[in-house]
Specification:
The chain is of the alpha/beta class. The protein has 10 helices and 10 strands. The chain has an 8-stranded mixed sheet, sandwiched between helices. A two-stranded antiparallel sheet has the order 2-3. The longest helix has 21 residues.
Length: 279
């Protein structure tokens, strides 16, 4: 399958920078490449009907980094001016609240069960840091000036629907008629809907979602994803009535392997000579 992008190995994929959550600097350009590739290649594959609105992100094994890829891609798409919604369909190992800095007891499980409205469960990832804003205001006042946090009009929005409360039967919950209705509603309201789901080879939770989305992206982690698991996942997607597989994200790739795959992030970076000639 097509490799959409290769992400280098980093210690902290999502960081606080300039007062807001952003992907690590080493991940920013590869994630922008992923966003652009999904927009361009998907539009061509769909014969000019436009890129897919809803994308399901899965992996062959646990720990491949699909959740951090979803969070990082969502932040990059917001930076590009899109209205993005992240749906956490992983009830067993929910991490999206921690990754994107949201906190609510309500989520997808409550919406599908009918105990909570969608607009009451969606949480917006705020831009800017209140702590840094207060510090900037104090510094500006002390200097006799006015400190203002300026938000670019080109920056979009990011909303999150976390997994929510514990679920006794996740596959049955995700197979309810309310789930495709929810995805259609989100696709009408947002430019991009990213669904984070558990590995389909380990649990069957994700199987009802395969035919509800516009496209599927597989995340594979270098040195971690087992070849047998990757092959079985491809076989599962091939024999299941599912959305088209858009491609693979190679995660945690070393620099030599990045170049072997044909990807590099060093373009435009200033390089200095190791020694200075003269005085």
């Amino acid at each position: 399958m097509q490799i959409l992008t290769a992400l280098p190995s980093v210690r902290s994929p999502i960081v606080q920078r300039k007062g807001e959550l952003r992907p690590s600097k080493l991940l920013s350009e590869p994630l922008r490449r992923l966003h652009a590739t999904l927009q361009l290649d998907s539009a061509r594959a769909r014969e000019g009907t436009g890129p897919p609105r809803s994308i399901l992100v899965v992996s062959a094994d646990a720990g491949d980094g699909k959740s951090t890829v979803v969070a990082g891609l969502a932040l990059i798409q917001r930076e590009a001016g899109l209205r993005v919604a992240v749906v956490e369909a992983d009830f067993r190992r929910p991490v999206m609240a921690k990754l994107l800095g949201v906190n609510s007891p309500h989520g997808l499980a409550d919406v599908l069960a009918g105990t909570r409205r969608l607009d009451g469960a969606l949480q917006q990832v705020e831009r800017g840091s209140p702590v840094l804003a207060a510090a900037a205001a104090e510094a500006g006042a002390g200097a006799g000036g006015v400190a203002t946090m300026v938000e670019s009009a080109e920056v979009g929005s990011l909303s999150v629907l976390v997994g929510g409360t514990s679920v006794s039967n996740p596959p049955a919950l995700l197979a309810r008629p309310a789930m495709p209705e929810l995805l259609r509603s989100l696709s009408d309201e947002f430019d991009q809907v990213l669904i984070d789901a558990p590995p389909p080879l380990q649990v069957s939770d994700v199987l009802p979602l395969l035919g509800m989305v516009d496209g599927i992206v597989v995340v594979a982690r270098a040195g971690h994803t087992r070849e047998a698991s990757a092959q079985r996942l491809m076989q599962l997607l091939a024999r299941t009535a599912s959305a088209p597989l858009l491609g693979i994200v190679a995660n945690a790739v070393s620099r030599p392997d990045m170049e072997r795959y044909g990807f590099s992030s060093g373009y435009g970076q200033r390089s200095w000579p190791r020694t200075l000639i003269g005085r």
